[in-house]
Please model this.
Amino acid sequence: MRILLTGAAGFIGSHIAETVRGAGHDVVELDCLLPAAHGGTGVVSGDIRDPEVVRAALRGVDAVCHQAAMVGMGVDMADAPAYVSCNDLGTAVLLAEMASAGVSRLVLASSMVVYGEGAYACALHGAQRPLARDASAMQAGLFEPVCPVCSSQLSPSFVDEAAVLEPRSLYAATKLAQEHLAGAWARSVGGIAIALRYHNVYGPRMPRDTPYSGVAAIFRSSLERGEAPQVFEDGGQRRDFIHVTDVARANLLALESGCPQGTLAAYNVATGSPHTILEMATALAAAMSGPAPQVTGAFRQGDVRHITASPERARKELGFAAEVPFDAGIAAFATAPLRG
Model:
């Protein structure tokens, strides 16, 4: 196949380019290289919000792997126009040009953030959807979601792709809008649309010390300065840390899959073996022989407490299973090259 890869110069995109080429496919790379994401490195190819740029990039293409996005939570509502422009307008332009060009296969980089909080259960009332987190409770050090019926503490579990979607940040809202746009495109043109809901991706080439840095890169930067990683809340937030090479392989499998036409198929891209933020910070500090993490009790209102997902559907339908173990991946990440 000849594949258009948007966001090709980014952290995840650069690994996808290598993996897809290694499987024998041709790759057309498109990236506008936002300075905050890439530190000014690489070659500016073009902006997906420009129809002429996209139209030219789509010539002779069989499929699109759409990674380009403005990431991070978004600080306040003043960030909304930029997020919507980069993520949703950019996706709309891409899909319109795909329809005109007759390109009928799309793999979209989505995210776990479309779920909001993960899945929870109450010992008395079964499965429950927690209410939005209460700032006064978090200020008092009470971070665990409670049952909306009886106010007892909920137990986290794994979310699947059929869960209610409830984005709780600007970025999350735009990622869900991307999924809806892709679904509408698939129904309109009879195309194949696959949304890969990434969990916490880490690995070589992560951006360092930018608004786009993941928590693993932020902790590593602190350790390189000889400082203890600053862990929010009580460190008990559960996440699924997945290596970028596994994510790249998931994209290749999606590009080559036989998913049904005319609908959006969504898949969790996760290991299925969650760890807490404190566990990750502790493992990284040990690998770097640095100071132990400091649990600060600080919090961000838009953060969710626990979000871990079942990768079972991806295993059954895409043949995907993560291969990089947590301990080995974090140990390697301690010395992996990052982006400035």
Q: What stands out?
A: The longest helix spans residues 80-101. Residues 39-44 have pLDDT under 50 and may be disordered. The two ends are 33 Å apart (CA to CA).
